[in-house]
Structure formats: structure tokens, C-alpha cells
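User: Hey, quick favor. My workstation is busy. Could you predict this chain's structure for me?
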Amino acid sequence: MAGAAHHKILIVGGGAAGITVAASLKRRGTADIAIIEPNDTHYYQPAFTLVGAGVYDLARTHRSTDSLVPPGVARIKAKASKFDPSNNTVELSTGDKLTYDYLVVCTGLKLDWAKVDGLAEALGHDGVCSNYSSEHVTYTWDCIKALKPGDKTVFTQPPLPFKCPGAPQKIVYLTIDNLRRRGIRDKVDVAYYVHAPVIFGVPFFARHLAKIAEDRGVRIFYQHNLVAIDAKAKAAIFEIAGGDKQGQRISVPYDMLHVSPPQSPPEEIKSSPLANAAGWVEVNQNSMQHVRYANIFSLGDVASTPNSKTAAAVRKQSPVVVRNILRLMRGDAVESGYDGYASCPLTTAHGKAIIAEFIYGGKVTPTLPVLDPGKQRWLSWWIKTSFLPMLYWNYMLKGYEWFPKHNTAFKEPAA
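Assistant: No problem, here it is.
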């Protein structure tokens, strides 16, 4: 296309996936790579739960985007607004157009606050908080510290898909631990409203988490979806999503309301030829290659792969994308390599966590199979709070790929 700048590899999105893929390609000697990323700040989002619980400083979760873009990779400060894959073209929010030989789409997803009536207006004051918002995550800690005897706390989990499926309940346990340490646990009501019929999507870990929740005195309401907030009355409105009362709405009073918002594909993806019927970039779940456009790949939260949306998934998807782009450059066929791996470090108290690792089909695949993967451990807390941030900033985003393999031959202990 006349007048359009061209790049051999164009990456849309400079988050965890985009930076990792670019860095890995550069390490392999690939030239002419550009990243489209409008945001100047890059966040390590897995630490937001810890920030909201008062055990991690928000300042440690972010760095400038430019400091993370690998040397020799061009950063284009704009947003991709239109995709024309038949002509290998991306249009930017600036009106400029770019062409490419290979496209990698990793825009992330959209926090859809507007899907809950009144949420956007209520967030950040009068007890309404969310660890999913970098702007408001520290307010969660303010709310926890302000809890007093007689208060009612309400925590929500939205319909899938959403990133970090364990995050909505992690803050439940960390809040309870804070209340216990202050000697007021038995004086504060803790209720967890879950859209799904189970507490976690992998049965092995669901059994352990349900027992933890029971032991901590969490009142769980399954198949309840937050649809509105009456901030003036301090009431959360839930719609029942199953059973005899399906479709009915209930009003739940709160003093503290932690919301995990609904999440959706970005509009520019949803309206593009890249999307499937649900709006996600439609790729093969093992090769990460687009099902209709052979020179396009996608990974991370925006991809249609049916894995849990976590940074650990990106860490295992990115080498597959990189290898397959290089294979196409050599004229070879792409290969399958991603098995749906995801990891969710579930913080169950201050100093305790469960590292939930699994692949497609909910099969448990621990990296350290000699340890019972369902047990709460201090080691898992250390991995979550110290090792994984270091791995993210200094290894993954630098394009290093080697990591101990998860054990797909692991046999789950009998229930």
C-alpha cells in the first residue's frame, strides 16, 4: 500500500505478551519488529491482589513501557483501530496505516465496568473497591483497614472469561487473615458471590478451596451475578444465574464491596475480521496461529484459546508463537506446542498460598510434583510474592524461554 510504513513483524499490544514475544524474537536475531502500544506505563498485574491486601507497594508493580521495549524494536505510540488482514494492514488511531509480513495480536482485554449498572460511578469511594483497577487498587487496602465489628463485606466473581480466575477469591482470604490478626474475624460477615456453580474451574483445586472457604467461615453464594450497585443505599444487586430462582434479583447490603468486573474483548478486535463469534481473536488452541490468516498469531488475554487468562499462560504461549513465526519464515509448517498451561498462585493467608497449575481439560500439571499441589505452603507464598515478580521483569520480559517443564504425567491423589 502506497504511503504505508511496513514492518516484517508487527505486534499489536505492548503488555506482557507483546514485550515477551518481541524480546524473544530479538534474541533469535530477527530484525524489523515494531510494537503498537499507546500506554506509557506497564503494570505487573499479578501483584495487584497483594497491593490490595496491603502487603506489596503499588510502585513496585509498574515501569515505563519504553524501558521494557527491547533495543532495536520500534515502539509506535498509538492504538490499533482497524484490521484489514486480507491486505496485511493495520490502521492506527492517528489515521496512519501500517503493513506487515507477520502480525501478532496481544491487546489484552477490556475491563467492562459499564456492564454493572452504577459500578463506574461507585468505584473508589464509600466502600466500593476493585483489585483489577490500577487506579483504585490501593483503595481496597483502605477499605480492609477500615472494617470494624458489625460490618458486612461482599466479594464478587464475574462470568468467564476473565483474567486471573483465582483473583476474586484471593482477596477474600487475605481480608479474612487481616481480620483474624486484628481479633475481629468473628464480628465481620464475609460473603462471596460467584457466577459459576463452583468455586474454581479445576475440580482438584476446587475441592481444596471449598474446604478452605468453609474453614474460614466464608458464606458462598453460587450462580449469582452482580448486575447493579445502588451506591446511595450501599446495596449490591445480584441476578440469580441458575436453579429454581434463575433470573430473580436480590439486594445485598454491604459496608465493603470488592468487585471483579466483567471483562470483554476490545471493541476494535470484536468488530474485526480476526474475531470469532464471541469477539476474541480466533486461533488454533495449540499453535496460536489464526484459523483463517496464516501469517497472523495471537496470544494472551485476547486470544480465543480456552485456557485460564494468566501471565503464566503467556509465558508458555510466547515461545510457541515465536517458533512458529520463524518456521513460517523458513517455509516450514507450524507446529503445535501449547497445551493450555496456566498457573494461578492462590494466596490463602498472609504467608500461605497454593500454586494451581493445570492444562486444557483441567488436568493438574505441577512443576514441582514431589510436593502436594493442593497444600497451602509458605514456599508457594514466597514464589508468588518474590520469585514470580523477579521472573517476570528479569527473565520473561527479556525474552528468555527456558523453564522447568510442568509434569503432564502427574496423577492426582484420590479425592
